[in-house]
Design a protein that fits this description.
Layout lengths: L3 E6 L2 E6 L10 H16 L5 E6 L3 E3 L4 H4 L5 H22 L5 E5 L2 E3 L1 H7 L3 E5 L3 E3 L13 H9 L1 H10 L3 E2 L11 E3 L4 H12 L4 H15 L3 H15 L3 H12 L9
Parallel strand pairs: 2-3, 3-5, 4-6, 5-7, 6-8, 7-10
Antiparallel strand pairs: 1-2, 8-9
C-alpha cells in the first residue's frame, strides 16, 4: 500500500496521504510522494487544480514523531534538521505550484498538517474536522513555515492563540479568521471540492497562475511596489491567447475556451 495515492478526476488531480494507521503523519516517503504527485499534476495539461486530502479520520497529524524520536544524541539533531529541510522543500513546491491547490480537510490537521494547508490556496473542511498548531504541546517549534504563514493568514492574535494553547479548534470556528473557506458535512466534502475544481477549470490557467504569483509577491512587498508589478504583469498578460479569447467570448456572448497560452 503506497503512502500517497495519486489519481485524476475530471479536471482535478487528487493527492491523498494514505497512512491512516499513523494519522497520515508526514515522513520522508510521504513527502517524496507528494512531490512526485505535484510533478505529475504539473505536467498534465488536463489538470486544472490539485486537491490535497487524507485517508481515514485525519487529514494529517503533522510530522511522524515516532520516526524523529528514534534518533539519539547528535543523530537526533541531524535527523530533525534533515527532515525539516526536506519538508520545507515540499511545502515550497506546494506554495509555488502554478495551479490552484485545494485542501480537502477530512479530519484532524495538526502541526505539520496545518503547515501543509497553509501552503495551499483554498481550504474546504468537513464539519467534523479540527485544526491546530500543537507544536507547543510537545515542546517543539514549527519548522515548516507555520510561524510565518499562519500569522499572515489569520492575523497575529489568532495565530498566537493557536501557537500558545495548542488547542484543536473546529473548522467552523476558523472560517471567520480566513483559515477555512467553507465547511460542509463529511459525506459532501469530496463532491463539494470536485464542484469547486470544475468551476476553477473554466478559468484561464495562465491567468490563475499569474494571479497566484501576484498574490505571493504582493504580500512580500510594499503596496506601491506590488501595484506597479501588477500593472506590468497585466500588460504582459494582454499578449496572451487567453486574454484575447476572454474578450472575444465576452463580445460574442459565449463562455470562453481557455488554452493556458
Amino acid at each position: 500500500m503506497t503512502d500517497v495515492i495519486y489519481e485524476t478526476r475530471a479536471s482535478g488531480a487528487w493527492i491523498r496521504i494514505n497512512r491512516p494507521e499513523a494519522m497520515n503523519a508526514l515522513n520522508i516517503e510521504v513527502l517524496d510522494g507528494i512531490r512526485a504527485a505535484l510533478v505529475e499534476a504539473g505536467e498534465d495539461e488536463s489538470v486544472r487544480a490539485v486537491v490535497l486530502t487524507g485517508t481515514g479520520r485525519a487529514f494529517c497529524a503533522g510530522a511522524d514523531l515516532k520516526e524523529v524520536s528514534a534518533y539519539r544524541g547528535d543523530e537526533l539533531v541531524r535527523g530533525h534538521r534533515n527532515f525539516l529541510q526536506h519538508a520545507s522543500t515540499v511545502f515550497e513546491a506546494i506554495e509555488t505550484f502554478p495551479k490552484p491547490v485545494i485542501s480537502a480537510v477530512n479530519g484532524l490537521a495538526l502541526a505539520g498538517g496545518l503547515e501543509l494547508i497553509l501552503c495551499g490556496d483554498l481550504v474546504i473542511a468537513s464539519d467534523t474536522a479540527k485544526l491546530g498548531d500543537a507544536h507547543a504541546n510537545y515542546g517543539i517549534l514549527p519548522g515548516g513555515g507555520g510561524s510565518v504563514r499562519l500569522p499572515r493568514t489569520v492575523g497575529p492574535t489568532m495565530a498566537n492563540y493557536l501557537f500558545f494553547t495548542g488547542e484543536f479548534l473546529p473548522a467552523a470556528r476558523l472560517v471567520t479568521c480566513g483559515l477555512v473557506n467553507e465547511v460542509v458535512p463529511p459525506d459532501e466534502l469530496e463532491a463539494r471540492v470536485t464542484e469547486l475544481v470544475e468551476v476553477i477549470a473554466t478559468k484561464s490557467p495562465l491567468g490563475l497562475a499569474r494571479l497566484k504569483q501576484l498574490v505571493r509577491d504582493g504580500l512580500a512587498q510594499e503596496a506601491s511596489t506590488a501595484v506597479r508589478l501588477e500593472l506590468l504583469t497585466s500588460e504582459a498578460h494582454a499578449h496572451s491567447d487567453d486574454f484575447v479569447e476572454g474578450l472575444t467570448a465576452f463580445n460574442e456572448g459565449r463562455p470562453p475556451v481557455f488554452t493556458g497560452r
